[in-house]
Backbone:
């Protein structure tokens, strides 16, 4: 059993809305992530698949569970919505892992809550499997993320553009506290709860800042620093989150709320997949800029907690935001230089990006090919024959070091969850066959492994397989 010890539910009642009703599904287990459970020291081995499916679809509650739907607000595509909240999710409770790290156990697709607005509180199977695959890939890539513990079919159909099988995802997070959680209280002018939330977040996620002088500013700074690192890491693997609204940005620095997200195949700096992102606000290349926009929204919330002189706090935050503009570019070029096996070099990274985009090359395999060129191996693509390669190569080779190949091996995955494969396994599951999904989960576990023959999971899509649009599906 999970030994629950719930702290969020002890906060004032404005933070959440309790849930008491169980679902009346006949759930069916799709997958339970046993290796994650043992990694964290959760022992559920004695439970049958049936019982796991019940517990992780809120059809039954494990002893100690204290389910609540969490309140938050958020800027959605730049427009402020004062009340969002868990409309199709619930926080079952929290536990401490082997190392005393606190985790939330959260269900997604588990039914209507106080915050559902016009939604049905359900999730179709597609978004559940997409989040499972992408979050577990992210983990394998070494990038901070919420984890996927379990996926369950509900046995019910949900109405989307068509009728689709319903499912519930169980995800674990260091916390589900969003920039939007702060906005929820700030918008009401509720400084008391804002203060409680900030103290709680520091205690739980940044304990080293507890009782330090100027801790609110330091907290804000630490959140932004984690995000800059995180988003640079996304960029380094071609990940596009797709909906970087303030309610989908966690103060824990984990990737959260996988919606219409995707890893890009061909490199386009301003690539957008999401069908709802019509102006490219959350395009690949805009993600760091948007992060800084979100940092400003968090800063606005925290000003009342930063001392008497609000004008002074504002000036200080504005100055720090411009520093973040620089830090972010530095972080991006650092990580992208490493992928090329070289020291920090803005010009070479830029030349490479121009070359990739000009020929619409596959982002992932092109880096692998550079490494193969250095190792005198046959390349997977024909990049060496393309116009501009010789010039780029001359520039690049000037900066190479003795350990370039080793560095590239560490930074460049050969396996990413290819969008067309994700869609393929989702289509199979919609038609009742979960096996391709199960196989794909296994195939994404060793992204840095080098194979001389590409597997179907590693191959870029053929033209007719290419997925151009992704959907929230909510
Ligand atoms: P997202 O941008 O997908 O993270 O969701 C934005 C908001 O819409 C959150 O408050 C969700 O809880 C809510 N939402 C999304 N889908 C549903 C649904 N099917 N039923 C109820 N609320 C939903
Ligand atoms: Mg969300």
Residues:
């Amino acid at each position: 059993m999970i030994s629950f010890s719930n702290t969020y539910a002890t906060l004032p009642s404005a933070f959440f809305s309790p849930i008491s009703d169980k679902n009346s599904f006949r759930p069916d287990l799709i997958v339970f992530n046993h290796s994650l459970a043992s990694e964290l020291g959760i022992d559920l081995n004695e439970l049958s698949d049936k019982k796991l499916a019940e517990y992780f679809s809120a059809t039954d509650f494990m002893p100690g569970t204290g389910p609540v739907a969490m309140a938050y607000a958020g800027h959605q595509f730049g427009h402020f919505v004062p009340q969002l909240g868990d409309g199709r999710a619930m926080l079952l409770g929290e536990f401490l892992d082997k190392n005393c790290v606190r985790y939330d156990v959260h269900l997604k697709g588990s039914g209507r809550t106080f915050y559902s607005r016009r939604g049905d509180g359900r999730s179709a199977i597609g978004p559940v499997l997409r989040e499972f695959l992408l979050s577990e890939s992210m983990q394998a890539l070494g990038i901070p993320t919420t984890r996927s513990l379990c996926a369950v079919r509900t046995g019910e159909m949900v109405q989307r553009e068509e009728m689709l099988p319903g499912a519930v995802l169980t995800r674990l997070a260091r916390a589900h506290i969003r920039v939007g959680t702060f906005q929820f209280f700030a918008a009401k002018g509720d400084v008391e709860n804002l203060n409680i939330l900030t103290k709680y977040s520091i205690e739980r996620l940044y304990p080293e800042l507890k009782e330090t002088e100027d801790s609110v500013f330091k907290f804000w700074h630490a959140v932004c620093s984690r995000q800059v690192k995180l988003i640079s890491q996304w960029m380094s693997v071609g990940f596009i989150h797709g909906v970087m609204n303030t309610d989908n940005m966690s103060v824990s620095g984990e990737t959260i709320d996988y919606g219409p997200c995707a890893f890009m195949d061909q490199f386009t700096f301003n690539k957008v997949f999401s069908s709802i992102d019509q102006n490219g606000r959350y395009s690949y290349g805009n993600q760091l800029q948007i992060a800084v926009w979100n940092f400003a929204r968090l800063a606005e919330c925290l000003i009342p907690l930063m001392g008497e002189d609000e004008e002074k706090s504002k000036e200080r935050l504005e100055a720090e935001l411009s520093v973040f503009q620089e830090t972010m570019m530095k972080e991006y070029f650092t990580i992208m230089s490493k992928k090329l096996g070289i020291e920090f070099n803005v010009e070479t990274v830029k030349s490479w990006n121009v070359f990739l985009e000009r020929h619409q090359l596959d982002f992932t395999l092109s880096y692998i090919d550079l490494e193969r060129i250095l190792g005198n191996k046959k390349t997977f693509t024909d990049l060496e024959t393309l116009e501009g390669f010789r010039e780029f190569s001359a520039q690049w080779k000037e900066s190479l070091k003795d350990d370039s190949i080793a560095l590239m091996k560490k930074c460049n995955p050969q396996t990413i969850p290819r969008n067309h494969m994700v869609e393929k396994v989702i289509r199979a599951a919609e038609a009742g066959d979960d096996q391709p999904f199960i196989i794909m989960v296994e195939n994404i576990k060793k992204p840095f492994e080098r194979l001389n023959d590409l597997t179907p999971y590693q191959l870029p899509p053929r033209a007719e397989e290419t997925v151009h649009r992704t959907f929230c599906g909510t």
Residues 8-173 form one domain. The two ends are 31 Å apart (CA to CA). The chain has 14 helices and eleven strands.
